[in-house]
Structures are given as structure tokens and as C-alpha cells.
Amino acid sequence: MGRQILDASLIANEVIDSWQKRRGKGLICKLDIEKAYNSINWQFLLKVMQKMGFGQKWLDWMRSCISTAKFSVMVNGTPAGFFSSSKGLRQGDPLSPYLFIMGMEVLSVLISKAVEGGFISGCRIWRDRGQAVHISHLLFADDTIVFCEAKKEHLTHLSWILFWFEAASGLKINLDKSEIIPVGEVEDLNEMAAELGCRVGQLPAVYLGLPLGASNKAISVWDGVEEKVRRRLALWKRQYISKGGRITLIKSTMASMPLYQMSLFRLPKSMARRLEKLQRDFLWGGGNLERKAHLVKWEVVCGDKKKGGLGLRKLTCLNRALLGKWIWRFACAKEELWKKVLEVKYGQGDFGWRTRKANGAFGVGLWKEILKESDWCWENMEFKLGKGDKIRFWTDQWCGSHVLARSFPLLYALAAQRNATVGEMWDQNLGQGGWNLRFQRDFNDWELDMVGRLLDALREQRVTLEEDVVLWKEGKGGLFKVKKAYNILTSPIDVVFPISNIWVDNVPTKMVFFA
């Protein structure tokens, strides 16, 4: 499924968006596993690991790890004896999540086999009659979501699969907490829900703690975030907290609460203003949010400490930095499912480094909104040369601090192949390999200097057998850093500030605040 929880939410919303824009009908089955870790069968787990190819020595280790644990019950503050369990995994054991995922892999295989046999059909995503990808289910830990056509027999087959899985693994679906959610106008919905034995839900819903099937422009999906911040403020209402303590609480709690949702969804400007107002009022007025004078502009407060600010962050810029990370992740990803979905749905562009521009009306898909951050992201990315078959010689940044078309505009105008890749401009037959640059005409004497400078720039570059890769300019090792991206997006404050004399480790923050 993927290592990041956000991947599953992105795929789920894109699937719903595809259904809605095609005016198709479908069902989303959100399944809740009852007491997931406590009920899994040990013999089932060991059999799964054996089928996966684990050796007998490893199986003996795992059997010992999961079956020798002892439990005790506290009676009047003292443990009253110890007892063993016959099934389940221990909460908090670092092995438990991995073992549980292995068990859930069986459910994934069962659903996949049912799709292959035509007993369940997921959502088929395609573009212009081209390559298609089928999404039938998404698993992340014990959260399971199944996509199928709005047909009663498909739910019958799904109920059989869940029954077989429960019999083998001990993992039971809690039908009281599970639900089917219709996409489009679905008839006989209550009958279908009765077939599976669960309730009927509706969009927008919540999946993995994030909105599912909500409009991109809907501000209501952020109401829960604002309510969480207000509830947290209520806990601090009657406490005296110094200015330094308020800064710490804003950074560690108030500013971090929206981060999870901001990592995938665009934060509306009106909601950003409301959340920042809560932060401002708390900073200057305390937990009661009293209307006290704001002694310093919020822009200055959000500045870097090196520039005289307090190191708080503007939510709009932080949101853009978090969304921009997806642009970099897409360029670096190889075979991840979420990338395949986006490539098929929106089309592949620029040798797979990005998708094509997303046209059409906004729906519940998230990628179209994320693509708005492409321009500034690509301005801060560069290529590391490998084979050179996915890098354009003139218009991609791979040699120097600018693209060659910008550094040598006259030579670019004379180039015979302006869209040629680096690999096409490299001739392996020239000795140990060399550059074979092609132009429309011979050069004048006064143009030779320019050609010499281009060859000097290319001297250190060589085509290799490795794959071309994308690097983030400001990140260590070429990795994307949200902090660096945020600094790019914020307007620098040109102030000379004696940070070493003010922000001293031995001085409390509440004192430094007034320095």
C-alpha cells in the first residue's frame, strides 16, 4: 500500500473524484476490525510467514516472541498473579505492527483474487482510452476500505471473503462500526447494506483522520481542526502562562494541530486567518483570549529568530511548503501505487517527472490543487545526471545554477534540436565519450568564446549507466525539507539582529521575549 498514511487518503479521494466526474455509480465499504491486535490467531500468522518463505529458525523465534508473554491484573495496586494468552499480539511491542500487516496481507490477496475472478470489481481509472489502473481496496494497518460496483452480488461475495478471513485469522469485522458509502445515485442502498450487515454512510466522510470525498473548496472540513484548537485553549484558560510559555505552546500544540490535514489539503485563507487569530490572541491575551494590544505585527512575530522574530510560522506558507513536497515526491517515486494512479488519471509528462496539467472542474480530487505549487518547486529542484535519457539538454537544470538555455540564449536559438535530451547530445563513440553538439549553422568568430564557455561548463559532466535523479537544491543530500521550502516562500526581513546576545540558552524565554 505504501509507507505513508497520506498516500492512502490521496488515492481514495482521487478514486471518488474519477467516479463522480464520469457520473458513475459505486460503493465504498469502510470496514472496522474488532479488537484487531487482541484477536489474531498465532497459528494463522506462523502459516502466513511460512508461505512467505520465512525459515524454520525464524518461525521458532516468532513463536517464542508471541506465545511466551505473561500478563497480570492489578488488584488494589498490586499484581495478582500472572497468566498466558492463547491469541493476539501485545500492544506496544515493536514486532506487533509488522506481524499484523502480514496477517492483513491475506485479506488483500483474497480481495485481489476475487477481483481477478470477476466477483468484485473495483474502480477503473483511465485517461483518453489509454492505460488503466484498477483500485479495489486500500489497507493501512487495521483501516480497510473496499471499492466496488453498486451491485448486490458484489457485496454478497465481499461478505463471504470477510467470513473466510475471520475463520482463518480470528480477525472479525465490526459491522456496527462499518459502513457502505454510495458514490452517485445508488438504488436499493438499504438492501445492499443489509446484505453486508452494516449501516449506510454518506460523503463527505472521514478516512484515516482526513476528509474523504469533500469538495476542495469546502471550508467546513476544517471546522474540526478549529474546534480542537479551541478545546485545547479551554484547558489553559484558567492558568497563568508566561509569554515564553505561550510561545512554546503555540509551536508545540496550536500550530501543529492542523499539520496533518495541511499536508494534503489546501487550507482556505479565511480558515488560516481564523487559526492565526487564535494564536495571536493567545500570545498577547492568554488563555482567556482577552482583547489586549498586539505589540508587534504578526509578520514580524512569524519571522525567523535571526531576523528579530519569534520563529512562529504563517499557516498559508507552511501549507504551500507541505503541498510542495508532493511535487518532489512524485518526481522521485518509482513504482508506488499513488504515482501510478496519478499518471493514469492525469497523464504523464516530462519523462515521468511530473503529470500533465489537470484540466476540468474542481471536484474532490486533491492533485489539481497540489499542482498549483509546481512552478516554485521546480525552480528549486535540479537534476543529477545519469543516463541522460530523462533530462532535456537545454531546458532542464542539470549543469550549473541555471538552465543552459538561459545561460547561453544565443546558442539555444541556434541549436538544431532544442528539445534533445542530454543522452542524445552525448556520443559514446568519441574516444571515452564526448559531447556532440548540433547547431543550425557554423559560428562566427565572435561567437566562439560563447561556445568555449559552454564546453567548459560541460567538461565535468559525463553520462553514466545510472538513472537520472531529481535533487532538492536546499536540502541535505538532495532531500526535500519543509523548513527550507517554507523559508523560500516567506518574504525575508532584512534586519540586522543580535541573535547571539538575545537568544541565550541560560536565559528563560519569558525574559528574552521582552529583550
UniProtKB/TrEMBL annotation:
Domain Reverse transcriptase: 1-212
Name of a matching Pfam family: RVT_1
Source taxon at top rank: Eukaryota
SUPFAM superfamilies: DNA/RNA polymerases
Name of the protein described by the UniProt record: Reverse transcriptase domain-containing protein
Species of the source: Vitis rotundifolia
